[in-house]
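Notes from the pairing session

We agreed to fold both candidates in a single pass and log them together. This is the raw record for the first candidate, unedited. Please don't reformat it; downstream parsing expects exactly this layout.

Candidate A
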Amino acid sequence: MIIDLNLMGKQVIIVGGGREADRKAEALFSQDCEIVVICDRASDKISQWGKEGRLTLKLQKVSDGNFLTYFDRPILVMAATDDIQLNREIVAAAKSLRCYAYSVDDPEFSDFSHPAIINLGDTFQIAVSTGGKSPIMAKNIKHRLEPVLKELIGKDDILKTQLQARIRKLAQNTLPSPQARKQFFAMILSHGEINRLLNQGKMDDAEALALKLLQVHC
């Protein structure tokens, strides 16, 4: 079963510095979580992301899972080294700390399989999964789907979603029922002036208008 785990503000540890670690880190950027990558040698991408502050890079050699005891609040540990036995030891240590644990290409020892992710504007994440049966097929289908989805889901869809994210909390506190909120958000989606402001890149003005309409709607 594919789920969307809420990682906002949580700590995620990736062990490994190669291509698989690259993919795992990149998939996490849209989750607004703290990413820590631990490895003895980091790829160019991971090194650059560390310099940019998108993740914390700790250069050290890992020989077992004992290093995890130095972290006080990880929720997820992803073992992405090229040593399957080491990955399993890391997973076992993570589970003993009650963390969700994942080992690359080793579904039997993981709490979940990691789908191939299509990330559109850090707003839409579309997962392709075979449940661990064939990661290479999931990646193959992902590459075939990605250009199609980029045609179907445009910048206006991303902006509308980001606007609704801005006002969602206030709408939940203001409107009394799920049905009322559904009607309000449907109205916002089709509102001509809001769409015009979004197309002009005026997100703050679009938000201000949406908030005015919320007061009228309540």
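Candidate B (folded immediately after A)
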Amino acid sequence: MSSKSLEIAHITIDGIEVDETTKIDSKQVTTQKMSDVLRMFNEKKPMFIKFYANWCGHCKTNEVLWKEMIHSAKADNNVKNANVAIVEIESKIVGKELDKIMSGTKNLKIDGFPTIGSITYDNNNQAIFKAYNGKRDAKDMFAAVKDLANGMKSGSMQGGKKRKTIKKRKTIKKRKTNRKRKIIKRKTNRRR
């Protein structure tokens, strides 16, 4: 069953959200099955993806903003009709069913929670993860999804290349002195 429109996945163990305070509304998502996410991956569907942990304070704070971003995506006709997915996966799934996506995606490393980014595909159909480095608010995350839906590179995403930072260099004027350096040769007691 292939879908050429926006798909929203929220994947947890047994399809049940562990933390009741951030329970996902089943009306907000199109699937809660890992098999559907694997199907999207195999169909080369671009994904805006978040890996989270239910015990993580940053993840709990981000959950409300993530829901706002989903609401904005569903309201925008360009995103709603685009062939993209918004995926949220609980950390306990990582290393089990998710191995196919993890091993088949270049640059995908989950070093902390939440890990947010996009999975896109190059000309050779190789999956590439690009970390999201923008503000973690609903507006900026929605802009990244919109860019993904439009097939553009988002300014808030980065791939294997690191950001270029401009460093200001201080030029220190060398002081001219008339002093001469004295070179002192020290005698050593070593035997040769």
